[in-house]
Batch of 4 targets.
Target 1
Amino acid sequence: VGNYADVLHDPVFWGSILTTGEFVVLAVTLETVLGLLLALLCAREVRFVRAIRGTLILPMIVTPVVVGIVFRLLYASDVGLTASLARAFGLDPPEILGTNSGAFLGLVALDVWEWTPLLFLILLAGIQSLPTEPFEAAKVDGAGAWRTFVDHTLPMLRPTILVAVTLRTIDALTTFDQVYVLTRGGPGNATQLISIYGYQQFFSFQLYGYAAAMLLMVALVVLVAAGFAVTLMRRRRV
Amino acid sequence: VRAGGFGARRIGFLAAVAVALLVALVPLLWMLSTSLKTNREITQDGTLIPHSFTFDNYANLFRGRSFGSYLTNSVVVTSASVAVALLLGTHAAYALARFRLWGGLERYLGFALLVSRILPPIVIIIPVFLTFQTLHLLNTRLGLIAVYAAFNVAVVVWMMESFFREIPVDLEEAAMVDGDTRFTAFRRIVLPLAAPGLVATGIFAVIVTYNEFLFALVLTSTPGAETMPVGAATLIGRINVDWGAMSAAGVIGALPIVVFSILVQKHLVRGLTIGAVK
């Protein structure tokens, strides 16, 4: 039981909880907005949609460890794509992984790159399965694109959005592989998500009880979120 | 006015899609291009297309390092665990879909299985690590197969149960009246009807299992059992600035699963979204 008290008094633990929270909120929000925009754009394009989907799927299939490698190659301050681009425009190459905010935002960008396609796929399927009558009616009434979106698309799509966001949130909370390869939690604790911190406590410092206590508390939170998601999905199915 | 608006919208659409495709592809192409450059060219100002192609970076992965055995391990572990999971999972899912247990227990059983998929892997890994230590399963492919099979069974049961529920009971009952046992009715009638779901579930399981990193990292530390993601990640940890080797490791690491995805592309979208859209 002492382990639990220790965890609660550990500022680094709270720091990594906060980092994880910021990471998840920022990344999942961006992914949802971008995914929804792309899905709306592609929904009526029957001809291109297969090719677009086929390409956009790639980032989410590529092994997460490899995604970490891809972004290290992009961000490298000497040989990276960002550095080459910056030099081409006559700027100093940015030190993305060397600064706290740079590394954190760099990690968010990685997650957005990798997982926007998932939101896109789910929302596209959702949009395509909507009934067509309300939209025809709205057209007859002379409603504009924006009004149609707010009045019809969004309300009908809300259950799908909710499920997609919850699924993505659950997975994002335990992001590990990409951070392990990209930054190992650094610089300092700037990208130390809870899974990285727990891993270090357990395997680098051999604090078995401490790590177990910490991770169990995290698990509880995730389970509650997941229970919420499952209830939602069950309700949709009925 | 109509025609003009249509044209502008069309251009907007094409521009947005082009940007999205570029953003998705360029980072991957950058890695591919870096892997084909000599280390001297890498450190010069980068171009997307290498001036001088070299396959040395790849040759080194297989010569001095163990990427051959990582590949074998990944293929063996992934296929064995998914096969076991599909075999056990479809039967369990069918049972959960058709039979009632005492006190409606079958509903909780389904959820309990799901928990193992939802719990953060880092939480489950501590007891698994300690158990494997006692059982001498660390550093074995068998150990990895066992863990992945357990995870995949949960996935298969969860997804297939809903497929089986949608198949009318009358079909099996008719077959059973005609003399089939329940087992042959399941095999002859139900399974073929659920085939699309089975394929999608299998694809999902293969991708997730091949890509899995944390368990493989913790449970293996010798080339005899390490999988591709672990091999690539530990190589990165050791070399740090050998960008050519790093990018080649990335390409080789992702190649098997990308090839697999291309082979099954017709069913891929369904496999990737099956958990959410079903």
Target 2
Amino acid sequence: MTDNLGPARDDIYAALIATHQGLTEAESHALNARLVLMLANALGDRDRLLDLFARARDQCSPSGR
Amino acid sequence: VQDADNLGWKLAAVLAGDAGPGLLESYDAERGMAADENILNSARATHFMTPRTPVEALFRAEVLRLARTEAFAQRLLNSGRLSVPCVLAGSPLVTPGCAPLPPGSAACDAAVSDGWLLAHVHRGDFVLMGVGVDLPAVPGVRRLGVGAGTGYPVVQDTQGQVAARYGAGLACLFRPDGHVAAVFRDPTPAAVLAARARALGHPTEDA
């Protein structure tokens, strides 16, 4: 994948972590699900999304399932 | 109701001596497409209603939460999909083409100067709608102008919805059941007649 985060990468990562601050694990999972849906809508490109889903899935460890 | 709509106008065309040999066979093909689409949507709706895994339940909960404020999430709410008319792209009766509302789609409504567009479309006949383009007279085809045209009824696209949904500068031929049979950038009488004949199940010349 190309690097699109640019110079703001550290800010973005810190903001993501901060967004989860103070949440229970269940609340964090829900927030992540919400984020996935919102980012999918923001991207809005079926082929790119399916490609990203597949790439993310490929990173699952074999023992995970 | 959609089955009855699909069969009704075809039987009427047969009784009027207007139908080609392919018309009644197309009923099966088109309803088969609608059934396939409904089965897929039905399976998706069932999964949404009764999630099979915790993560499916999690995503459903978040779609529901987002749907309170977000239009995209409201559209993801699956249960309404069964009542959305199917798209018949690939039907032998449909002339392929490129438009915001592609051929095969059911007509969608839009506000016009004297009310609603579908009131002008759904009258049980073939109607050619020109969005900002003049339309030729074609036998067996009623004309409807949107923002342009003389010698036939013309409505105004007061809110721009017709142009947004059907495409400015395009002409659109509706079947008697309100599905889009064909779209034209240049609606010549020959092109419109050919699309009408195809929609009635007559053999196509170049197919």
Target 3
Amino acid sequence: MPKIKIDGHEIEVAHGTKVIEAAERLGIIIPRFCYHPALGAVGACRVCAVKCEGPVKGIQMSCMTEARDGLVVSTTDEEAVDFRRQVIEWLMMNHPHDCPVCDEGGHCLLQTLTVAGGHGIRRYPGNKRTYRDQYLGVFVQHEMNRCIHCYRCWRFYQGFTGYRDLGCLQIAYRTYFGRFGDGPLESPFSGNLVDICPTGVYTDKPSRFTGRRWDFERSPSLCLHCSLGCNTVSSARYREMVRQEARLNKSVNGFFICDRGRYGFSYESLPERPRRARIGREQASWDEALQKAGDTLARIDPASIACLGSARSSLENQGMLKRFCRLLRWEEPRYFETRSMARKIQRAVSRLDKQIAVSLREIEGADFILAVGVDPINEAPMLALAMRQAFRGGAEVAPMFPLPMRPFTNGATVAIIDPRPVSLPLEFDHFPVVPGEIEPIMNRLVKGCVSRDIVAKLGPDALRFYDAIPQDYPPSSFKGGWADVEQKLLQSKKPVIICGTDIVQESTIISAADDALLLKAAKGWAGLFYVMPSANTFGAALLSPSGDSLGEIIEGIEKGRVRALIVVENDPFWLYPDGERLEQALGKLDLLLVLDYLPSRIAEQAHIFFPTAPLFDTETRFVNQEGRIQWAKPVHAGGSPITEVGAGNHPPRMYGGAIPGGEPKPAWRILAELAEAISAPRGKVSLPASIEDLWRWMVQEQPAFAGLQAFDVPPEGFRILPDHSKEQGFPSSSRKEDRERMNSDFLEVLPVDWTFGTEELSSYSRFIQQVENPPSLMMHTRDAATLGFKDQDRASINLDRGPLEVGVRTMDNMASGIIILPRHRQLAWQKLKKIPARIPFERIRKM
Amino acid sequence: MGSPVLLQNRKTDRIATLDEYRKSGGYEALATVLKKHGPKEIQQMVQDSGLLGRGGAGFPTGLKWKAVADNAPFPRYIITNIDEMEPGTFKDRILAHSDPHLIIEGTILAGYAVSAQKGFLFVRPAYESSALIFERELKIAAEAGFLGKNILGSDYSFEIVVHRSGGRYICGEGTAQLNAIEGRRPNPRGAPPYATDRGLFQRPTVLNNMETLACVPHIIRRGGEWFKSLAKTKGAAGTKLYSACGKVSRPGCFELPMGPRLSEIIEEHAGGLPPGSEYKTCLPGGASTRFLPKEFYNIEMDYAPLKAIGHRLGTGAVIVFDHKTCLVGAALNLMDFFVRESCGWCTPCREALPFIRDLLWRIEHGEGREEFIPMLQVMCKHTWKSFCAFAPGATMPVESLLTYFGDEVREHISQKRCPFSPPSLSPSPYPLPPGERGNKMK
């Protein structure tokens, strides 16, 4: 490992380390514009110049110079300093100096380095160059005059994320970064342009002109809009969430987040967000509502009370709900809408352990990715970026090649087995088959790459599993791609299996883990990565081993067994597939008590309602889908935004000590108060009022939390996975042979997620609402032809719960025999009644 | 002056046909090589001949070929650089319009020497007629069995395609040319990796100037010693296509033994300066070389002698300036070209060149100030720290203007006008300051 000396300090670094990185480790931050750890070194801006002695001599760019033994670097050399000052002067020649009206002002790299670099007096006597700006959609504001041509946006947009509609046009001093014409950016990662631009060419449009960086209350936070748990920094001003940025987590999201995560936050500051306790439809004082709830619940037979938590709730809320039920001797709470989902997640959680689970970062290092039953861009967008980095052969692949094509990279092979028309910013082999066929095809692919001798070492169960995999799959209908993929898997050294949990069957989840074990046995290393439905699905599964769900509660209500329901931060109308049945069941309840922060449909129907505090107002923990527990700090003391309560006064004038609209409390705290109110007549029962207390109980309750003290979660999170999974591999009992082929008189409906419009929290965001596509069903062109549909037609589907009208898209790159329907907020897909739903052909009509 | 070698088949009205080329010994080298010599021998022969790259850098061609490792992957590529855009340079145009098969044969031989499978003729779009000629002659060569599968019955197969440049000066830069052929932005690539390891499509690639490859068939047919004996200067080899333009009576392209005196090129071959003109200076090898002061009027025009006095032979295209020509105006004119043609990748090139142009414009138009001179000097120096050789080349005329003709610059400043143009005439092709001209886009 080379040893180099920078400004008199010696440091030993790994081979291939650039001087700029080595200096950073010594705490010497060399100026940079074009260099970015995720985008690599390209030597374009020339501002990182240093003086070198030894194996290389003279002024060199520290981002392009590799550390070599005997290299002596001076960052303070007179010539280097003068050159850096000169470079900054050149960059500032055409910069508009509009810092007072630029949103980047105050956290602008160009501003910082201009001052730090010592360029103060303008000497260029000429006029400044000007450009025309473009409309880039609702997320990103374009102001091209500010550009210093570091090429970061181009390298990020086309190189890192693989989208093509924003790029680099023209040459020389007219070089332009933008689109071919005005129009919304097509990438679901476009908001990162704001983060990586070293000046104000791309600024955050939703938070435009809302304040300077130092005006904001800022805090490390988490994204709740899928199960990956990307890290963010959230900003609030005047009691309103204004902005969300990516926060570096090297194991999870790296430097970036997707647009759903960045702009989904505005549910927190909705004017219609309930901020007062309610009895019926009337607002009530907190104590009154608490009294009423306590009295009512105390009168109801404890055996007829059910509780529903959620997978979007924090670990504290989920845990307290469980403790609350235990204490009052009620039934255990449920966290899932349907039994099948609860069981699938149980399976996934029980199969993950430290040996096999991989993080997003580890996916980037894979050389073969087999993704089954998962549509990354729609379900967990940042997963698509990790897969792209693997495809590129590591993020640092020559950034001069923004659009690598397969012959030019040694990156990973990506194979997708999924019925949906999966689209990814990378080259991949897609085997579109119906959900029931995913598993046998995956098993067959893995079997072809693992010899029986190796499997024999894993024991008789493994061998039984291996031998049961039919040789005849895949059907001969797969074209050339199959043999190539099989070959690539055979050669691979670091394969990863990514398995969704939404559209697949329970046994597919088990098989994915078993297949990963087989690959691990054959290759010494293999990874397993599940994608789950919600931000804290993993936590919910840890706390509810029974696999019971809302479904059983509804049956209980219908049979009169359940008379009261407490719902904590859940809106079952969002995911429960039979809206009408749910509505009728809720109508029969003596008490529907809802705790939530969303203006949800169930909150409207609540007999008693308590407003809870969302993520941004309170300290919370979440467990992502790889079992990583992560921590979010409160961003601000929540309350009604000043814009709402200020009555137009500027500055808003209010008197009094309390924060208007500041009533919401964390759900776990409300539950503690409720427990006291319920038990008051029978002598006080107290639940822990402090978070430390709660955590002590949690650690006892769930061994996975052991070793996790209340406040010392490390910055990269903490994996709470066991060393060896609870459930042994190759469980024969739970596997069922479901090889039923689709027959031709019906189509199976597959409700799915879309990037925008189906995820609950972000669907309340006024920014996301502006970019979501209207709902449409997707079917294979062949099925469409049978039914007489053309692309863009409208269909009416006659369901048991009434007709569903929706636009039709026809696709060739999806499985036939199915209809894909987004769980879109604008679509009453809950008329399906149950999933899987099978629709006879004659019930689908053209409108 | 001996008989021409490269231009032996030059005619006044048309190109040499395949038959005419073969009559002059054409494709004999190829036939011999395919029968008798292995690739390694060819590399050695070319190295021994002392052939230096004619694109301007003067890198030994044999060494470049040897840089392709024996075990380097396939396919391998040859690129023949016919993207001649250096201002004042037109040698490739003359040669391409005289004897296209010489270039084709040179390319095939280079391909054989590095076991390449495919060659590209990268042609400047202004040379569309050359591109058409090449396309036609490539077909003829293929029909005659010199190209394609199993050339002349051997087991060597090679094909050549004509690639038309998008038409920017930077595409002539070797690594930018690789990007251009791949369909990317023609930004230069950094080295390593070198093109001979990972060039075009990440495969081993050798890129040579067209004139360089035109020498190869002759070297192979008549030997390295013969080639060396052609040169005038000691240690040099071959003939060179020199050209002269600017203030000369008979501008043109002349094939001369390597190393003629500058005075000889101007006076004997280009007919001297027109009556009434006095020699002031010249750019010895295109626009990205330094103004050569008068005292070097008799310098030998070869790589080494010019390098010894801090100058560059470049492309050997001499642009002559007389005593009535304003060198500030000339430098401004050239800078305008470089400002426009920068690829825009790195800051010194993209931003400093317009800065320099602006200051030159002001000096030329009577708005110059004394402090501009040190500013220009410092900036010219700093452009040497840019990504590729474009910016250092672009500032060479300005830097040498300030070094050798500082008085002329100061005269502009003190007189607040260009001393070469009568005040009554509008001196400038640019009526507005640079900032106002043509730089609005989109």
Target 4
Amino acid sequence: MTAIAIVGTGQTEHARRRLDVSQAGLAREAVLEALADAGLTMDDIDSVVVASGPAMFGAVNQPEKWLVDALGARYKPVVRVTSGGGTGLAGALQAMNQIKGGLAKRVLVVAYDKLSEGALQASISTLYDPFWGRDFAVGIMGFSAAYWLARIDTLGHSEEAAAMVAVKNRKNAMLNPKAHVKKEVTVEDVLASRPLCWPIKLLDVPPISDGACAVILAAEDDAEAITDKPAWIRGMAYYCEADNSANRTMVQSEPLKSAAARVYQTAGITNPRRQFDVAEVQEPYTCFELSYYEGLGLCEEGGAADLIASGATAMTGDIPVNPSGGCMGANPIGATALIRLAEAAMQVTGSAGAHQIDGAELGLVQAGGGWANLRGVAVVGSSKD
Amino acid sequence: MFELILAYLPFVWLTTRMTSGHRPRVAIVGSAQTQLRSAHRDRQHVDLIAEAVTQALLGTGLTIAEVDFVIDSGSDFLDGRSISNCGFLGAMGAHHKEESRIEEDGLWALTYAASKLLGGTGSVGLVIAYSKSSESDPRDYWSTLAEPFTQRPVGLDHRSAAGLYAQRYLRKHQLDASDLRRVSDRAWSRAAARDGNDADTVDLDTPEWDEQVATPLTLRDFARPVDGAVAVVVATDHVARQIGRESVWITGIGSAIDQHFLAAREPSSLPAAEAAARSAYRMAGIDSAADFDIVEVSAGSTVGELMVVEALGLAEAGSGLDCYADDGHAGLNVSGGALPADPVMATGLVRLHEVVGELAGRSPSADGSARRGLAHGTGGLGMQNHCVVTMERA
């Protein structure tokens, strides 16, 4: 099997509103940083995969076509993958397949969202079936709150445990130069914050951001020629489950388990808690990070509240989760999944700066989207195997 | 420049890989489409998708359980629905499988599926594309493709873009707009003779077809948006041999995009289509477009179709119309192409389905002589993006 590595990463200055750039300018900013990181130019890139959130967020249909001029991608293959919030990872997966399948040698993945330009929750509400789902849809928050309530009852994912996720990630974001929300909070602050869709409260929710991330993938010897610190992708998968059927469990995510099982098998992971040095997960709300702990096998079912309380997932713990601050530091939705991958790559190559986990060699990445029915997992390492 | 940086290096490397060892090949083992019609008023998206998927699997001996992954194409803007694939995953048979949505014409979804099989990720893939443009106004879909600052405010959309191309193309090659009738007349008569669409129910003698909608083009020069779905089953050679049915093999894949800013593009040709074709031909080891017995191209307008035909190398620049003469290219758009029936987002994959039908002998018009085929897909404002897939019968 062809070994594929991340040879360059870049991120924009994320912000609530980037009034100084267009969508195309935003994407270009991240791409320039990734190219500089890899020491490459667009002439060295065979193919471009663009990933962004639902196009209605930014009110431009098929926006990848607009980016072409700003990216210098004329006459190259350019295609866009859209898979909700996890789309950045779905884009990276397509890039991997282009290389593995021999259709390209070096692929640039750029993921972005400029959420200041559209009506976010209104756009998300159109996710629901127009006949029976849309009348009572409340953006993405309504069903997420329902999920969480079910998990509070069955798994003990209490409001306090979720608040600890907010405290941890917001604290970690203080060290990340790319995070734009930098304000520490306490568990009491989170619990006392305004309910938006109970039990989801204001401080359980990440910011809404403008931002982009770019990652360059290459294979084997080529990757090693480009950089002396490639981050090898040891496995990646992106699974789905169909519609809101009656038998769909709201307690554990089945596509997350499928994706993790597939990737762990490829990467030789049998004890995730012990083997991984660091994890980057995409938490649209705090309650989801708790759920991922269990779905990814970092603890047993019903063990997430104890895991966060133990401090194991803090920067100083044995399995730090989201040293970047996760979505709490910056949340340009279409880019967040690729940011998780880029951050994990930075960790295993020792280039994460102030939020570096010392000696990290193996990183876990999780992302997802849709109505929590699309779930992706990846493993990156400092060595090929 | 393009040759060197994009096509040459990767494909030398690719060719080496393809010819050494047990490199998997990709076969198209099944394909099907619903009828393409102006409106499927009594059926939802899921009904159209499920019909195409069920029919594509028929005759392969495969069930949905044996499909490893699903790649689909559709448009949030046309569907009026964010992440619209989420609503159709059940009908697509994607439940608990790997699935990805390509928000581009379905031919690109096919190339994604092919790359997964070539790279060893799975052995059976399902590719789906659909369109239900009757539920929205496709003109909004087209106009929102233009970036919002400089092009959209001046009214640039697919019609005005095609009109600008037509003015420059016709002037450069000293042709008259009435010459374009040869393209549209042949397209509609061929489509009307087939069961897969409702072209025979359209009255083309009414005055609106000759109204100028983007000088010098009339409505007759533009593709007619229709509803429909198409599904294609792809498999590795190992699985294809077990199926034992007449398979069609993918031999070449290429895609390339032009700049978005229309004024920066070539005035009367489509170099991105040419670049896409060049990549596919190189991968297939084919020297010229004359090698293809069957060619199905997508285009938003008559003049667009001529420029595609020329970019693929079927005719010299300005001579595309020769293909439509009585002694022209009989195997070009046997189905009628995209002009009489354009299921936006699915059009290119329908073209591939048509090629497969001819090569595998499943199409009523197939006479068994066609061996090599080409399918072309396009997307974007003024046909900015192009994809070419070449195929061969065993």
